[in-house]
Design brief:
This protein has a three-stranded antiparallel sheet with strand order 1-2-3, with helices on one face. It has helices spanning 3-20, 68-81, 86-100, 125-149, and strands at 33-39, 44-53, 56-65. By secondary structure, it is an alpha+beta fold. Helix 1 (3-20) crosses helix 2 (68-81), helix 2 (68-81) runs parallel beside helix 4 and helix 3 (86-100) runs antiparallel to helix 4 (125-149). The termini are far apart.
């Protein structure tokens, strides 16, 4: 078995773990920044909620339905952005987008951790929208926050 196959197996296990045991699944009581998005191509739907205080993503949760890639990506993203400034969360989203598009991406600024398990999705163009749905929701919400502050 080659290293590539072992890595693919490991990545699949990470994705399935986030799908079966999603982190940050649920909704906040009270005020939060809420963004609803869907991917009509395959029926993925997500509601992302973030609590943003003093320019930082303090907490993030999601609910939704969709394929394993969509929901595991949402789980990974909500974990990754907690504690980040709005600018850093948007920068991480940009890095994730580059990774999904098969471009060279910056793996030095942030420890991508489990998120790197999704890099294989880049080989399947039809699935890229699944992986990026939660990230696009986060961008939409945080860019709105930035504009409100400016």
């Amino acid at each position: 078995m080659s290293l590539g196959n072992n890595l693919d197996t490991l990545y699949r296990q990470v994705i399935m773990d986030h799908y079966k045991n999603p982190r940050n699944r649920g909704e906040f009581d009270g005020d939060s920044l809420t963004v609803n998005m869907n991917n009509p191509t395959c029926g993925d739907r997500i509601q992302l909620q973030m609590q943003v205080e003093d320019g930082k993503v303090v907490d993030a949760k999601f609910v939704g339905e969709g394929c394993s890639i969509s929901l595991s990506s949402a789980s990974m993203m909500t974990q990754a952005v907690k504690g980040l400034s709005i600018d850093d969360a948007l920068k991480m989203s940009e890095i994730f987008s580059d990774m999904m598009l098969g471009k060279d991406y910056d793996d030095k600024t942030f420890d991508l951790g489990d998120i790197e398990a999704l890099q294989g999705v880049a080989k399947f163009p039809a699935r890229i929208k699944c992986a990026t749905l939660a990230w696009k929701a986060m961008e939409k919400g945080l860019e709105g926050q930035k504009e409100d502050k400016e």
